[in-house]
Design brief:
Elements (H helix, E strand, L loop, with lengths): L9 H9 L3 E8 L3 H7 L9 H8 L4 E7 L3 H9 L4 H5 L1
Antiparallel strand pairs: 1-2
């Protein structure tokens, strides 16, 4: 998923992604609060949950269905650490 803060870089992100994956489906959408809460339900009750919901409903996002051998593992390697402080290292 390309999140709202990366909206201006969608073209570049898709181009980079296409070099390692087949994009089988692409959808531009905007989460409602209800949809975001359901999608991120695993984080409900954590201190950052309200901020996460506000962020994810702030603008459009792009969902991508990616195809590649061992796609999930490959995607996690491709995007790097989820902790933004560690990613900056």
């Amino acid at each position: 998923m390309i999140k709202p803060n990366a909206y201006l870089n969608i073209g570049k992100i898709i181009s980079e992604t296409e070099q390692q994956f087949t994009i089988a489906n692409l959808k531009l959408f905007k989460f409602s609060k209800t949809e975001a809460k359901k999608f991120y339900a695993e984080h409900d009750g954590k201190s950052f949950f309200p901020t996460l919901i506000d962020f994810m409903t702030s603008d459009f996002a792009v969902g991508m269905e990616l195809v590649a051998p061992d796609a999930i593992k490959k995607w996690r390697t491709f995007i790097g650490p989820t902790n933004s402080l560690k990613a900056k290292e």
